[in-house]
């Protein structure tokens, strides 16, 4: 069914008609419903010598985050005597977009993205535990199809968690937009170009908001609706992220215990997992 | 969360209760917060992903994989990153570079050959080391002892106010490393042992640094190592490797690859499991290059787990 919907869209495109953002049946250009999120995949396997890493996919947007540290600051003048410095570097691969384009390190948009991510995480990471250190966050954008900022934020959260860096909470981000009067979540590039859109990052436990960005103009009456919707979607993404982290933690704890005494631990961990599911 | 339930049959070793950041653990009125937790709204909340540990009323969370947290007395392997006035900076896989003061290393002094017994020579060498004053000339030739990139084994001596660790190499077993190679694995895989200097029967010496750096080197005979006539500065601070024959080179690479496989599969490193793995690897007649292949690694890990 999904594929037939897609082919329909493609035929429409071929026929030269403008792509509908939301058709009469309530479907979007990629066959999703209004509030439907794209597929999420999370890979938390070890990447080289990094202390923590995460490969996060939202639909066709794919970001690899690697975290190094806390470690000795490379630039001594930047160190703070009472907390760690967070350094974010974003690298947008030339092959990540539809048309190939090389962005330098000093590209203004990329620098702004890095600064946004840095300010999102500064209140969440417990930097005061690591005076005079530096935490490096490197982001590699491998594919992009809208929602670049929220994919970067989610990947960074996971990478920080896998690096064992203390966080107050997860940070879960999602983008949203409004098509005439109907709000939509997790926009693709196509939708992002046409719609007023915002990105919201929340801390799911306290429901605090660490980031709201709005690059385009949005009617003030629509804002509350889409904002609340994005907060709910953040909770859903949190569930996925937490599941992935739990799975990795339990796998590592099991193999760590297996060297001394084989087996045993696994069943107990599954039980605790079930408890957590019930808690949710 | 139900810590009360755990109270009845709680055995810290057997039950791994897992948590992740932002998860409430218990009330802060009944319990104290330890590492990996914070208090908000009268609740103790986890700040890292890992296993919950409880000692009486203290709740802490140990992250599964993290950087090295030093403790006084730990044996570490490190690499010199910087030479500063009267001190070296050492990368020891911790959150800050460690400091090795010029005053906490053994310096070559006027060598006297004592003809007394072993004990007497040991005592005199200690006395001499203690008596040896650090001179301005030593400061000027710090790079002849350790320079950037040199590897060394040392012990954590103390901490500075900001949490940086201070190392010392004031033992004949500590000092510059040569004749081998370094492997870095997650620090949590190295447990505290009676001795972190291990000699394997295959002619390989191991130094398991608690910071996750492992030094695998050619076996040095005990008598040569001790240097009965004291402390020979030339040998201790030498930058030249001894001759290493092919068999030893093969053994070193094989042990190193096994340690890498252990690190990749997150298996704790002990001398017995390492030895078993080595014997198994020799039996299988794997080419050393192939021992890092995924299937070989998995087979090795399965064998080690089955035997332990």
UniProtKB/TrEMBL annotation, chain A:
User: What broad class describes the main subcellular location of this protein?
Assistant: cytoplasm
Q: What is the protein name given in its UniProt record?
A: Ribosomal RNA-processing protein 41
Q: Which organism is it from?
A: Fibroporia radiculosa
User: What quaternary arrangement does the UniProt entry report?
Assistant: Component of the RNA exosome complex. Specifically part of the catalytically inactive RNA exosome core complex (Exo-9) which may associate with the catalytic subunits RRP6 and DIS3 in cytoplasmic- and nuclear-specific RNA exosome complex forms. Exo-9 is formed by a hexameric base ring of RNase PH domain-containing subunits and a cap ring consisting of CSL4, RRP4 and RRP40.
What family is reported? Belongs to the RNase PH family.
GO cellular component, alphabetical, reads: cytoplasmic exosome (RNase complex); nuclear exosome (RNase complex); nucleolus
Q: Which GO terms describe its biological process?
A: nuclear mRNA surveillance; poly(A)-dependent snoRNA 3'-end processing; rRNA catabolic process; U4 snRNA 3'-end processing
Asked if the Swiss-Prot or TrEMBL record annotates the protein with the keyword Protein transport, the reply is no
Q: Disordered: where is this region?
A: 253-280
Please verify whether the record's keywords include Magnesium: no
An annotated Gene Ontology molecular function: RNA binding
Q: Which UniProt keywords apply?
A: Cytoplasm, Exosome
Q: Which residues form the Exoribonuclease phosphorolytic domain?
A: 36-166, 169-231
Write out the annotated subcellular location: Cytoplasm; Nucleus, Nucleolus
UniProtKB/TrEMBL annotation, chain B:
Which UniProt keywords are given for this protein, alphabetically ordered?
A: Exosome, Nucleus, RNA-binding, rRNA processing
**What biological process terms from GO does the record include?**
CUT catabolic process; exonucleolytic trimming to generate mature 3'-end of 5.8S rRNA from tricistronic rRNA transcript (SSU-rRNA, 5.8S rRNA, LSU-rRNA); nuclear mRNA surveillance; nuclear polyadenylation-dependent rRNA catabolic process; poly(A)-dependent snoRNA 3'-end processing; TRAMP-dependent tRNA surveillance pathway; U4 snRNA 3'-end processing
Task: Give the chief site where it resides.
Answer: nucleus
Please, which domain of life does this record's source organism belong to? Answer: Eukaryota
Instruction: Report a single Gene Ontology molecular function.
Output: RNA binding
Tell me a GO cellular component. Answer: cytoplasmic exosome (RNase complex)
Q: Where in the cell is it found?
A: Nucleus
Chain ranges of the RRP4 S1 domain: 67-112, 130-157
Work out whether the entry's keyword set contains Isomerase. no
Annotated Exosome complex component N-terminal domain residues = 18-55
Location of the K Homology domain = 180-221
Q: Does rRNA processing show up as a keyword for this record?
A: yes
Protein family: Belongs to the RRP4 family.
Among PANTHER family, the record links this protein to: EXOSOME COMPLEX COMPONENT RRP4, PNAS-3 RELATED
Protein name as it appears in the record: Uncharacterized protein
Which species? Answer: Fibroporia radiculosa
